[in-house]
What we know:
single chain
Amino acid sequence: MRLIWTTVTAVTAQREGVQELETGEGPALSYPALTGECAVGERVLVNTTARDLTLGTGGVDFVVARGHADDGVAFEEADTPADGHIMKLRYTPLQRNVLAVESQESPYHKVMGQVDSLEGIPVVCCGLHSQVPLVAAAIKQVDSSLRVGYVMTDQAALPLAFSKLVAQCRDLELLDATLTCGQAFGGELEAINLYSGLLASCHVQGCDVVIVSSGPGLAGTGTPFGHTGIAQGEAINAVGALGGNPIACLRMSFADKRERHQGISHHSLVALERIAAVPATAMIPYLEGEQQARVEAQLEAFRSRVEHYFAQLEQSGFSEEALRGLQVTTMGRDPADDPVFFEAAFAAGAAAGGMARFVEPPSCVKSAPRIDLDLDE
């Protein structure tokens, strides 16, 4: 870890929960809920570790604390009280309390004490954060009236505000609700774990379809189990245990030069073969020629403890118009560079949208007040 005192030279952008800064060290992000709001000329202590390692996602500095302009040592107070007693970023210097949806002081405590089923609603389990807007757009393309929720887990970025994609999806009404679970924070609702988060998305936020994914910042090592894609299998298990309908969004590519990510990525294959203990639906996009042959060979060799349902589209399902102007890339590649990645995510969303139209709306308590927890509160 590397911590350096520097000075804020500009606030280049600001959206709910996060500031984008320029400092004497370079670009930095600040989360006002953790440090207070930064101003030009202010001394800040920044963590430069990720940038020093030239990492991709998260390769910027992060503000750890703000100091007085005169000596750069004394800390200024950051007083952002919240109503709840559940701690996130627990046992770290930046731990913060949140109002968890399950907590005794929550207006939804009684509801959360009574519900134990997702009542068959479809839940799309993603392995990459960049799949989330694609899945959401495909669901809305099937039926724009469907209420789509996003549950962010804590395997990657922890502050929801770090994701520009989610903020844009909310603005474009591709996502209708957000929830952060585990150590992740900043959603419209907070939950202690994925199971409670899924139930709250269904019964409190009233979602017809839920998308589960980590935040930005996938980690991988080239080993079978050393990657955050494992969480996709764990999400499938949670959905199955709660009586939902799990859909696996396959990570697919023929543009990625790494052999392990060609066709169906080994991340998705391991999650389905070795981690998922309940059946899931997995959609294959329309393919031709050598690409079709490659995927067929992978499925022929597929050996799982449970019998997943694989289906394939008979035509392309991806639509630029469905994204409502949102620009999405994966590993720096756009739809023209890596069409199969985008087609696969759209296929999963289309399946979820189709399923949702045949499921009764969840028995959520619509009279309860909505909690909007923003990172500045």
